């Protein structure tokens, strides 16, 4: 079962970001992001909206109301990561 903390962490890892990068993007400390991902605290509504924008997902997805991210976005992100890795392996 997915939870808010799992979806936050998984979305961050999908983008290959560290917690500090997320904290800088939404204006909180790294510790706050860590607390969200460990279910020690819940994000305020304004931070939830910021997380959704940064991750390019819906708040419904983060809140586990919807089970899918926006389909085209997920595929675009996966293709981008795949192409980056191919470039690293094989060059331009």
Q: In words, what does this structure look like?
A:
The chain is mainly α. 67% of the residues lie in helices and 0% in strands. It contains six helices and no strands. Helix 2 packs across helix 3 (30-37). The termini are far apart.
Question: What's a concise summary of this model?
Answer:
This protein has helices at 4-14, 19-26, 30-37, 45-55, 59-62, 71-90.
| Biggest sheet record | none
Mean pLDDT score: 86
Number of E-type strands:
0
**Separation, N- and C-terminal Cα atoms:** 40 Å
- Give the number of helices: 6
* Gyration radius over CA: 14 Å
Low-confidence sequence ranges: none
The backbone outline, from C-alpha atoms, is: globular
Oligomer: single chain
Share in helix? 55-70%
Assign the structural class, choosing from mainly alpha, mainly beta, alpha/beta, alpha+beta, or little secondary structure. Answer: mainly alpha
Q: Could you tell me the strand content as a percent range?
A: under 5%
**Could you give the order of the helices and strands?**
HHHHHH
Topology, pairings included?
Blueprint (H helix, E strand, L loop, with lengths): L3 H11 L4 H8 L3 H8 L7 H11 L3 H4 L8 H20 L2
Characteristic terms for this protein:
92 residues; mainly alpha
